[in-house]
Structures are given as C-alpha cells and as structure tokens.
Amino acid sequence: MEVTNNLLSKIATNNGHGENSPYFDGWKAYDANPFHPQRHPDGVIQMGLAENQLSFDLIQQWIEANPNASICTPQGASDFKHTAIFQDYHGLKEFRIALTNFMNRVRGNRVKFDPDRIVMSGGATGAHETMAFCLANPGEAFLVPTPYYPGFDRDLRWRTGVQLLPVVCESSNNFMITREALETAYEKAKLANIKVKGLLITNPSNPLGTFLDRETLKDLVSFINEKNIHIICDEIYAGTVTMGDEFVSIAEVIKEVKCNLDLVHLVYSLSKDMGFPGFRVGIVYSYNDNVVTIARKMSSFGLVSTQTQHMLASMLSDDKFTENFISESRLRLARRHDMFTRGLAQVGIGSLESKAGLFFWMDLRRFLKEPTFESEMTFWRIIINEIKLNVSPGQSFHCSEPGWFRVCFANMDDETTMVALWRIKTFVRKNRNLEINTKRQYWQNNQHLRLSSKRLDDILTPHRMSPHSPLASPLVRAQN
Ligand SMILES: Cc1ncc(COP(=O)(O)O)c(C=O)c1O
C-alpha cells in the first residue's frame, strides 16, 4: 500500500477526507444492511443523513404543472441548444436573480441579496473549500464552535492545508457561543503560533438544530472586527426554522453594527432548504469584491450545470410556489421533529431544545457506563448493531462532552419513523439496567439544561398536539 501511495500525491493519499470517522462508519453499516419495510425489516435505519425529503410531493406537482421548465420536454425543447452551449462561470442571470429572491424570502425579505455577488460552487461543500482557498494560506486557521458538521474537516482542510481550531461550547449553557470561549480559542492559537484567519459558524447549527439570536450574532461580528479576521456564515439550514420563529441572518446584523464588510462571507446551498443535494447547487456570497472576483475564477472547478440553473431559475422565480413550499416545509419538519422527540420523551430520553434543522441533538449521557468517548463508542455500537439505527455520535462532531448523538428525522417516511421510535422504546424498556444514573440524579445534575421536545408548540393550538404528547413523561415532570 505504501509503495502505491508513493506513486501518488501526499495530499491525495493523506487522511484528509475523513472517511475513517464513526460518522462514515455508520453509513457503511447502513449500506451493508439497509432497512426496507418488506424486504429487510430488521435492517439498519438511516438516521445519519441530513436530507429534507418531506415536501417532495410539492416539487413533483410543480414539475408536472410546468413542463416548459425542463429542456427535455416538448414544451421546453426549444431552449435545449441555448442552454446546452452556455458555459459562462458567472452563471445564468435569471438563475442568480431567482436564487437571490429565494434567499431573501427564506430570510423573511428583511435582507436583499445582490445577484452579482452570487458565485457558484459544487454544493456548499465546494463553497467552503473556495472560501478556505481564498482567505487563508496553508497552516493558517479558522476557529469553529463545537460541535460542528464533520464534513468541514474535509471541505476546508483537505486540499488547502488550512487548519480548524475548536471553540469549545458546552451543554451547561445549551452550547451557546460565548465571547469567553472565542477568546480562549483565539489565545490558544496565538500561543501555538497559529495565525487565525477567520471564524466559521453554521447558523442554524448542524448538529444542534439551534439558531443564533441577534445579540450573539452582533457579538460575533464585533469579535471578528476587533481581531480583524473573517467570518464565514454557513446558512444552509436557514429555511428549516419552525414557522413563527424568526431566523436572523448575518446579512441583517451587519446592517445594524459597525463592521468591515470585507470580512463577511456567506455560504448557502439548495441541498437542505429545498432538499436538492443531488443538484449540487452551492454558492459563496461575499461582501468583499476581491473575494467575489477570485472565487468566481475558481468556480470553473464546480459550476452548476446550466440545465439545473435553467430549471431552478424557473422554479424559484415562481413566488407563489416558493412561498407555499417554504412555509409548508417548515411546518412538516416541525411536525416530524415533534413526533420523534415526544416519542422519545415517553421513555425518558431528552434532547436539546431546537427549532431548526433536519435533526435534533439527543442526550444519552445517562446510558454511558462512564462519561468517556470510549463509552460513547461502545454505546453507539449497541445502537448500530442491536437497535439497528444509524445515528451519529457526538465525537464525530468534535463535541467536547460524551453522550450526545445527532438524530436525522427528515430523510424517511412516517412509517419508518414509527419503526425507529418503536425500536428505541423497546430497547430502553428492556434495558433499564443500562442506565447508570438514576433519573432523579440525572435531572438534579442537569437543572441548567433546557431539555424539551417542543418545536411546534408556539404555533399550534393544543388540539393539534401530537397524540404522542408525553404529558406524563419523566421529561415533562423534570421540567416542571
Ligand atoms: C452545515 C453544512 N454545510 C455544508 C454541507 C454540505 O452541503 P452540500 O450538499 O450543499 O454540499 C452540509 C451537509 O450536510 C452541512 O450540514
């Protein structure tokens, strides 16, 4: 193997892709034995995939009603040649306009993005690499609050040689990003002689499913301005926030605080809000003119196919459709979230209160034999091999505390969700002895945590609450 590797580049053969993590191991376990209700009812259920599949019926209806949006239908074929030969790396103007309109709408039209600042990339994955390439030299670093999306280790680091340094966030304050944690990480880098070039945040957060309030965002903007470093905001989950709750974009906050706009950059994609990861539509949106120019030159490496741009330009400029899609999708996500977390609450399993994302952050600390990452792995193997669910362990998100797991809930149908819930409930009821802390001790030790299964409650009246509402569950009792 070593001989073979000597024939190849060091970067290509290093471990930078990160495939050796438990995050990807879970996917492999699923691939080896995937659940199917009839063919493999005992298979592994994939709950490690942040996909938004709950509103595809709406997309299909639109596609059927708009055959001229495709260049492969009799109605749209006259655009085939023009679309097939177009390859300008600025992208189709109508696509950029439609995309910015969509981005504005997702943010409640409180911001107005400029289509000329849109730079295309192969998904947010490509956008992150572009950002790292534009902003930092090999060996320089970005601070990243933990827990964070494991793909960042690959996207920002692998080919650029850039480093990611954790900003340690903890459950004691619901994993909030504090000034103190930022300063500590910054000072640590300085002591190690590492030049910090920026702060990378994901808002709403993957894996937490939470989003930042205006004050925290303002504080982050002051921090990066004081240090004269960049901020990259990944807002890929902006459109998954529960209806009635207001997502605040960095694009809003920079209008309200003094800020060097050359330091501010957004990453976005249609992989989550629209549920189109296969289309590889990602973008860099920078307020820095030089970054826009350089990133655009780089976009030759990850252009979005013109066929995709053409179709999406049509779909995303249909205001009635996008308005309805966003609100319906947000409602369905919240319902699914509640269905799952309330079901878990019935057997005393809590999660971090969250109102966004395609996942929640499940608290299984009391099932660990010891509060160590080894114990977390041991319990994760039980989840994969016995309960047959692929949920992702916190350590793969660089979480500083063992016992947290990310559970994705929007990549499956209701029936599969019920099977997953049933499996967990059955396991917990059969294995009460696995719980190391008594419930009483557990809750006493965690008074500071706001553990809740509620996501929809603010907008739904009681008669629409889930039939699985854990009115008598230990979780609710503990909150009272
Ligand atoms: C926070 C975050 N950023 C980026 C990505 C990659 O997205 P894309 O499919 O657009 O490359 C993901 C995917 O899960 C993600 O969660």
For the terminal residues, how far apart are their CA atoms?
59 Å
Q: Structurally, how many domains make up the residues?
A: 2
Strand percentage, roughly? 5-15%
Number of strands: 13
CATH topology of the largest domain: the name is Aspartate Aminotransferase, domain 2
State the helicity in percent bands. Answer: 40-55%
Strand order of the largest sheet: 2-8-7-6-5-3-4
Which spans have pLDDT < 50 for at least 5 consecutive residues?
Answer: 438-451, 458-480
* Count of separate DSSP helical elements: 18
Would you kindly provide a brief summary of this structure?
By secondary structure, this protein is α/β, with parallel strands linked by helices. The chain contains 18 helices and 13 strands.
How would you describe this protein?
The protein folds into two domains: 212 residues, Aspartate Aminotransferase, domain 1 (Alpha-Beta Complex), CATH 3.90.1150; 248 residues, Aspartate Aminotransferase, domain 2. The chain has a seven-stranded mixed sheet with strand order 2-8-7-6-5-3-4, sandwiched between helices. The chain has a four-stranded antiparallel sheet with strand order 9-10-13-12. A two-stranded parallel ribbon has the order 1-11. It is globular and about 65 Å long. With 480 residues, it is of the alpha/beta class. The chain contains 18 helices and 13 strands. It binds pyridoxal-5'-phosphate (PLP).
